[in-house]
Specification:
The chain is low in regular secondary structure and 177 residues long. It is built from two helices and no strands.
């Protein structure tokens, strides 16, 4: 009986998303439970423009998800898999991305000001024109990342893995002697 209720609940959530740009549209507020249900029934997530500000999403798998323009301000994204995800234009300011996997993620034009990214994997990530002001990248891996035109004010990248990273035209970054 419980399995039937869970299946019917997932089916209802899936059907409620139909006709709304396949998944969710701008300014919808979701809970952690609703996100978990969506992940369970979808091969790829379209969470474009969704409001997930201050939501606890740690340990979830958003591989390849479309989070373009999403509001993730202050969200707990610790240990989350966002590899290959599209976060272009997303608001991730003050978000906790501790040990997050952002391999090959698109974070162009995203706001990551004052985000917490220790030990995050940003290998081959697109951070072009992103606002990274005051972000904490302690121990993060930015190997091969595209940081063209990014705002790096108050960011210390000197002790990070930045081999092959493109720092062309970055703002506010001063390499220490």
């Amino acid at each position: 009986m419980n399995k039937l209720i869970i299946v019917l609940g997932l089916l209802a959530l899936t059907l409620s998303c139909k006709g709304r740009d396949e998944d969710l549209t701008r300014d919808e507020d979701l809970t952690r439970g609703e996100i978990i249900k969506l992940i369970a029934v979808k091969d790829s997530l379209n969470l474009r423009g969704v409001n997930l500000a201050n939501v606890d999403l740690h340990l979830l798998d958003f591989t390849g998800a479309n989070l373009t323009g999403a509001d993730l301000k202050g969200a707990n994204l610790a240990n989350v898999d966002l590899s290959g995800a599209d976060l272009s234009g997303a608001n991730l300011s003050y978000a906790d991305l501790y040990n997050a996997d952002l391999y090959n993620a698109d974070l162009s034009y995203a706001d990551l000001s004052y985000a917490y990214l220790p030990f995050a994997i940003l290998t081959l990530a697109n951070l072009s024109n992103a606002n990274l002001k005051g972000a904490d990248f302690t121990g993060a891996n930015l190997t091969g990342a595209d940081l063209k035109g990014a705002n790096l004010s108050n960011v210390d990248l000197d002790k990070l893995y930045t081999t092959g990273a493109d720092l062309t035209g970055v703002k506010g970054y001063v390499k220490k002697p």
